[in-house]
Design goal:
Catalyzes the phospholipid dependent N-acylation of the N-terminal cysteine of apolipoprotein, the last step in lipoprotein maturation. The chain is α/β, with parallel strands linked by helices and 513 residues long. The protein has 18 helices and 16 strands.
Length: 513
């Protein structure tokens, strides 16, 4: 006959995460993790979800169990956080409900493998208190970096983005988004040790790894890493056309679309300004649109103004023809920018000879672009140097950092119609805010149907248009100059430190065994 358990023994048994409860917690933690990001911005969920994941890893009895829990966490995370892929496939890719659901599930399942890698690495790291604080954040950063650069990369929902508008965000110009991920992962370990302390754990270190980085972040946010230029603020007009995606590429839609943007611009005109139209706002090749755009460009020049617009371009080089997703400057300015990081399936088809024509989603309009050169000069407009990017490129911190050069203003255009009404467009804007904060420059962003906005050099949205409605946003933007620590050093110090700590933790664990 067994003795009845005491209340303390009952509580201890209920917290046994070595059983199937640990796997269930991993899945739940991953599923709630995206709620920490825009538009909800319930940021405390991020370190709490990380704490739950850490506890699941610590209580995994075998490497196989740890990797299974890593996959469950990742599947919950991407299943909720990137469910918008279904909208892109079904609504705009003309894929059936069943096939879109299957492909989205496979997409999320594949992305979850990154957390399998993370779990496998963590399982091989020493499990004492010191290596918990050093090793877990290091492995988290290594995993995010692998997810960013492996194959074409998918740096969506990086942990550091959830720290915007928190005390920790002051670290952004110093460490970048991956550094913020490390600090939030560290806070997650601290929370885990406060929630479910292990043998030998002390509460004071757990509290300090949360409080000290937060207070230092508050101090760092008061520092001005960059300064305003002596130039007069630039007046910008961001035009949000709200063109229906399914009608945009119809052969008869090109002229009405261009006329719509011109009319909206003319009605909102109130003096010299930089006008920005969104990604592929001109739904035709630049070579063919020049004759149509020339009168408008001449008018811009006469008004001491400029237009930067998304457009498709054709380039002939050494007998080869290529097409690009581009930005062109017309009027009082100069420059042509070709997108450097393309979206798989949306702008090019991997394994094209096999997949092209297999289903409608693999044959989307304008899915045969070539990427532009990595190093391209800044655009110039009305005396300002502008660092340009298109859509998905803002997800790559190092690409954006190396593109700033002497620019005093950042500019990005996008067509987030593919996301429908999902959270993805808000998460995309959150990335834009982080890029502005990392390099200490204001960012202007024009989109087809939202989120068109102006962001200041500290990553704050100063003005924004309502999504899904046509409109023009007008604001004066002050250029900034100088370099943040992140602009000077990039991610390399953090990459080297994270890799070394991961390897050291594995070596210590091996010697302990």
């Amino acid at each position: 006959m067994s003795l009845p358990q005491s209340p303390s023994e009952t509580r201890s048994a209920s917290l046994d995460l070595s059983s199937y409860w640990g796997s269930a917690l991993a899945l739940i933690a991953g599923a709630v993790y995206p709620l920490a990001f825009a538009p909800l911005n319930w940021w405390p969920i991020a370190p709490l979800a990380v704490a739950a994941f850490y506890m699941c890893m610590q209580h995994s009895l075998t490497a196989r169990q740890a990797m299974w829990r890593g996959w469950l966490f990742g599947f919950g995370l991407f299943g909720v956080g990137t469910s918008w892929v279904w909208i892109s496939m079904h609504r705009y890719g003309d894929t059936s409900v069943a096939l879109a659901t299957l492909l989205t599930a496979l997409f999320c399942a594949a992305l979850a493998l990154f957390f399998v890698i993370q779990a496998a690495l963590h399982h091989r790291i020493a499990k004492n208190q010191l290596w918990a604080y050093l090793g877990f954040p290091a492995v988290w950063v290594v995993s995010e970096l692998i997810r960013t650069y492996l194959l074409t990369g998918f740096p969506w929902l990086l942990l550091g983005y959830s720290s915007l508008s928190t005390l920790w965000q002051g670290w952004s110009p110093v460490l970048g988004v991956y550094g913020l991920s490390a600090l939030f992962a560290l806070a997650g370990v601290g929370l885990a040790k406060l929630i479910q302390p292990e043998a030998g754990d002390r509460r004071l270190p757990a509290i300090l790894v949360i409080v000290i980085p937060a207070l230092l972040g508050l101090l760092l946010f008061t520092l001005q890493w960059t300064k305003p230029t002596t130039q007069t603020p630039l007046k910008v007009m961001l035009v949000q056309g709200n063109i229906e995606q399914n009608a945009k590429w119809h052969p008869d839609s090109a002229m009405p679309t261009i006329e719509r943007y011109e009319t909206m611009t003319q009605k909102a005109w109130s003096g010299p300004a930089l006008v920005v139209w969104p990604e592929t706002a001109i739904p035709a090749l630049l070579n063919d649109a020049y004759s149509v755009m020339t009168p408008f460009a001449d008018d811009l020049y006469q008004r001491q103004s400029a237009l930067i617009s998304g457009v498709m371009t054709r380039v002939e080089k050494e007998g080869k023809r290529s097409y690009h997703n581009s930005l062109v400057v017309l009027g009082d300015g100069l420059g042509l920018y070709h997108k450097r990081h393309l979206v798989p399936f949306g702008e090019y088809v991997p394994l094209e000879s096999v997949l092209r024509g297999l289903i409608a989603f693999f044959d989307l309009p304008m899915s045969q672009f070539s990427k532009g050169d990595l190093n391209q000069p800044e655009l110039t407009a009305m005396g300002h140097k502008i660092s340009a990017s298109i859509c998905y490129e803002v997800a790559y911190p190092d690409l954006m950092r190396r593109s700033v050069g002497d620019a005093d203003i950042l500019l990005t255009v996008s067509n987030d119609t593919w996301f429908g009404g999902s959270f993805a467009r808000y998460q995309h804007l959150q990335m834009v805010q982080m890029r502005a904060l990392e390099v200490g420059r204001p960012m202007v962003r024009a989109t087809n149907d939202g989120m068109t906005a102006v962001i200041d050099h500290q990553g704050r949205i100063t003005q924004q248009l309502e999504p899904f409605r046509a409109g023009v946003l007008t604001e004066e933007v002050q250029g900034y100059e100088g370099q943040t620590p992140y602009m000077r050093w990039g991610d390399w110090p953090l990459i080297i430190l994270s890799v070394l700590l991961t390897l050291a933790g594995m070596l210590v664990r091996r010697r302990q065994v």
